[in-house]
Amino acid sequence: MAGFDKVVSSYEEAMAGLEDNMTVIAGGFGLCGIPEGLIGQIKKMGVTGLTVVSNNCGVDGFGLGVLLEDRQIRKMIASYVGENALFEKQLLSGELEVELTPQGTLAEKMRAGGAGIPAFYTATGYGTPVGEGKEVREFNGRPHILEPSITGDFAIVKAWKADRYGNCIYRHTAQNFNPMAATAGKITVVEVEEIVEPGDIPPSQIHTPGIYVNRVIKGSFEKRIERKVTRSA
After folding, report:
1. Are the CB atoms for 70 and 42 separated by under 8 Å?
2. Residue 231: is its pLDDT beyond 90?
3. Reported pTM
4. Domains plus CATH for the chain?
């Protein structure tokens, strides 16, 4: 069964084939469940002109935010962008194109793209700038706008465990956007905390089946906390 083994030994191999002007879909929510090492490899490669699809763009100096430092991202499709001063600067200066998308719509764009559905109707965004120029149809007396789905040249995902065939489990809230992102890439790369042998993950516990995954790499993670909030005694 060696031909089914999807484990790679280096980040260079994990991201081989990524080129300028490609679209990258990234899992994660804030700094939770982000593929830290894969993002670092993209920075190291120096590719530019990227369209990046993710809930947000990290923070200054960490997560997807590091790709802004050398202006590697041309366009960001995201739901929330308020934790990054460099992002704000590049947006206001016109260096960075931004497509703000409601969070649930963004998740469904990924899921639909992975399912081979080219577009879907949603009531979210109707009557706002999000819906401008989009086709409108009425369902059950309520207007809906047509939203195109999203697929990417690469999807980069962080999982807790994966077996050598690419079957994945996510841990707690780190699941977030990762399962949808994993289905929507032509090449899906999963960075994991632990690689186990096939059969070690019960089929009923698998979140992302290995059929969606092309490469698996074991990473090490800082797991930085985005914002610490503590209560005084």
Report:
1. no
2. no
3. 0.93
4. 20-100+151-218 (3.40.1080.10), 106-150 (no CATH)
